[in-house]
Write a structure and sequence with these properties.
- By secondary structure, this protein is of the alpha+beta class.
- The protein has four domains: 1-223, Beta-Lactamase (2-Layer Sandwich), CATH 3.30.450.20; 230-329, 2-Layer Sandwich (Beta-Lactamase), CATH 3.30.450; 362-437, Orthogonal Bundle (Helix Hairpins), CATH 1.10.287.130; 446-590, Histidine kinase-like ATPase, C-terminal domain (Heat Shock Protein 90), CATH 3.30.565.
- The protein has helices at 21-41, 60-66, 70-73, 78-81, 93-107, 157-167, 170-212, 217-229, 246-252, 256-259, 274-285, 331-399, 406-437, 450-461, 485-501, 558-568; strands at 45-49, 55-58, 111-112, 116-117, 120-121, 127-128, 131-140, 146-155, 231-236, 241-244, 290-297, 303-314, 320-329, 446-449, 470-475, 480-483, 508-515, 519-526, 572-578, 582-590.
- Strands 1, 2, 3, 4, 7 and 8 form a six-stranded antiparallel sheet that branches. A five-stranded antiparallel sheet has the order 10-9-13-12-11, sandwiched between helices.
- A hairpin with a 3-residue loop joins strand 19 and strand 20.
- Helix 1 (21-41) runs parallel beside helix 8 (217-229), helix 12 (331-399) packs antiparallel against helix 13 and helix 15 packs antiparallel against helix 16 (558-568).
- The longest helix has 69 residues, at 331-399.
- The chain is elongated and about 150 Å long.
Length: 594
């Protein structure tokens, strides 16, 4: 039969007036059946036991969790249905539970048990390992005698398994111990809260039970069990809240007055999509029970999760006229799941970041080793030639004693100077590339006269000019710039020495400087051997030397260093070259560096 009255609308015995006893019993019997249905569909795990530990009633959730059928266990002794696991000699679930139930009978007070291992017998006869957090609560009749014991448990098997698994990981052990302590404190705290609520609700149940005596006793017992363990709300067919219990107010942080007359949008967190809410309403509007987990928002903005069962009350036509929502707080479980997922993501990210860091370091070390290996190979070859020239020139100079041999001595002294310059160039290139690779090159900008600075550079390289070579220098009217003189000196020395090295005697080299409002443009033009067109894309790579320059001494590092120096000035470099006609290098950088 459909329920015609919500569970929290009770009438006193006086409201029935002088109705016939049979009608009263029929009505109460119908409401008992309705409350029985509510008890069975509650989201928590409940057993209703007689004082001799015979099973009087079982919720659907309890039956599902313990893999039994209601009709197979009601009326049977608790420990006949749920014995100890015979395969474990250390099993003590039965003895511990029996001791707790006896304590309730003797003290007439609720008893909260610590987490117990109590394995469950599966339909095939084998036992499955389970861990539980039990609470046993007495229910009294009008004579203050225990008529029932509510046995409520929470299945914490997953929590215990997670605890064992996480204990293997040293990095997570401390967090797990803290979480275990928090959950134990939560269980203890909730047990105390439930005990307090039980005492208050028990007083109210006893007041009503005294007036209705034994006929409405079962109704009071069902109400007590529901209110003591769940978050309850009753709405009309439009979803307007008509009743909430204390647990609802406690978790939502709203008072009863703030909730009555509102709908559940007052606690909507906006987390669930519209399709989810639409499916919920479609289910209950069609008279079916809806079960699921909801994420709500309390008055103070905090988020909480509830395992929810919504039971529609149907009229004579089978249409819902009220809805009863029964909820259980599962916030800690959801937070634990989210935290574990976040810990795993953070660990994976750290491993990935560390792997990338090590890979980058390894690649850098490999590049440096390759650079040093190639430099040693190149230096051993490039040093051998100037050293041999120096040695032979020194030997010959020792043989030239007369005044007539002055020109010969000058010639060999010039060879010695040229060889020393070549070796110095090699060492400078290697030192520069090493500082650049290690990021040790810092930029120190200062104001200076650029044309005067360039004239000093031209004079410095004049000793390197071949016979008949000439450097022409031209600039516009702007003079002052703010840049790093040391870096700019390296750039110009390298470009001008290359122009001298790769040009023939009696050729002209142009250095053009143009200082504009915001930018400086430098050009070095020669009439030398040029760069083969198919090799121009590789000119700024380390150790690259064109095939037409293999017989000209050099390291293959100069242009790579120049490019990186230009980039330190926030500038750019490019070139135009034609084989056997010459090359023009163009450098541009800000006039006033930041």
């Amino acid at each position: 039969m459909p329920f015609r009255r919500p569970i929290y609308e009770f009438d006193s015995i006086d409201s029935y007036h002088i109705t016939e006893g049979g009608a009263l019993k029929t009505r109460l019997k119908a409401e008992q059946a309705g409350f029985k249905k509510i008890f069975e569909s509650m989201p928590g795990l409940f057993l209703l036991l007689l004082p001799d530990f015979t099973i009087f009633e079982v919720s659907d959730a309890y039956a599902n969790a313990t893999m039994v059928r209601r009709e197979d266990v009601i009326g049977k002794h608790l420990f006949d249905v749920f014995p100890d696991n015979p395969d474990k000699a250390t099993s003590d679930g039965v003895s511990n539970l029996r001791a707790s139930l006896n304590h309730v009978l003797q003290s007439k007070t609720p008893h909260s048990m610590p987490i117990q291992q109590y394995d469950i017998r599966k339909p095939d006869g084998n036992f499955e390992e389970r861990f539980w957090s039990p609470l046993n609560t007495p229910v009294f009749n009008s004579e203050n005698q225990i008529s029932f014991i509510i046995h409520r448990v929470e299945d914490v098997t997953e929590f215990v398994h997670v605890q064992k698994e996480k204990a293997k990981n040293e990095d997570l052990a401390r967090d797990l111990r803290e979480r275990h302590f928090e959950m134990e404190q939560e269980i203890i705290g909730r047990s105390k809260e439930i005990q307090k609520l039980n005492e208050e609700l028990e007083r109210k149940v006893e007041e009503r039970t005294a007036s209705l005596e034994t006929l409405n006793k079962d109704i009071s017992d069902y109400k007590f069990a529901l209110d003591a363990s769940s978050i309850v709300a009753v709405t009309d067919q439009k979803g307007i809240i008509q009743h909430v219990n204390e647990n609802f107010c406690k978790i939502s942080k709203y008072s009863v007055q703030e909730l009555l007359g509102k709908d559940h949008r007052i606690i909507n967190s906006g987390f669930h999509p519209k399709e989810f809410i639409r499916e919920l309403w479609t289910t209950i509007a069609n008279g079916r029970i809806w079960k699921g987990e909801l994420r709500n928002r309390a008055k103070d903005g905090t988020i909480y999760w509830v395992d929810t069962t919504i039971v529609p009350f149907l009229d004579a036509k089978g249409k819902p006229y009220k809805y009863l929502a029964i909820r259980a707080d599962i916030t800690q479980r959801r937070l634990a799941e989210e935290t574990i997922l976040k810990m795993n993501e953070e660990l994976e990210q750290k491993v990935e970041e560390r792997t990338l860091e090590l890979t980058s370091t390894l690649q850098h070390m490999q590049a440096m080793n390759e650079l040093k290996s190639r430099f040693v190979s190149m230096a051993s070859h490039e040093f051998r030639t100037p050293l041999s020239a120096i040695l032979s020139s020194v030997s010959l100079i020792e043989a030239y004693h007369s005044d007539e041999q002055v020109d010969k001595r000058k010639k060999h002294i010039a060879r010695i100077k040229s060889s020393i310059r070549n070796m110095t160039e090699i060492l400078n290139d290697f030192l520069s590339i090493d500082r650049l690779e290690q990021g040790k090159m810092e930029v120190y900008r200062e104001p200076f006269d650029l044309p005067a600075f360039c004239e000093d550079i031209v004079e410095e390289v004049s000793g390197m000019l071949k016979e008949g070579q000439l450097i022409e220098f031209a600039h516009n009217e702007f003079h002052e710039v703010v840049q790093d003189k040391k870096i700019l000196r390296h750039i110009l020395l390298n470009l001008l020495s290359n122009a001298i090295k790769y040009s023939q005697p009696n050729s002209k080299i142009l250095l053009l400087v143009r200082v504009e409002e915001e930018q400086v443009c430098l050009k070095v033009h020669d009439h030398g051997i040029g760069i083969p067109e198919d090799e121009q894309a590789f000119m700024f790579e380390k150790f690259f030397r064109g095939r037409n320059a293999v017989n000209i001494q050099g390291t293959g590092l100069g242009l790579n260093i120049v490019k990186r120096y230009v980039e330190l000035l926030d500038g750019s470099i490019g070139f135009v070259s034609n084989p056997e006609q010459g090359t023009t290098f163009s450098v541009a950088f800000p006039r006033f560096g930041e």
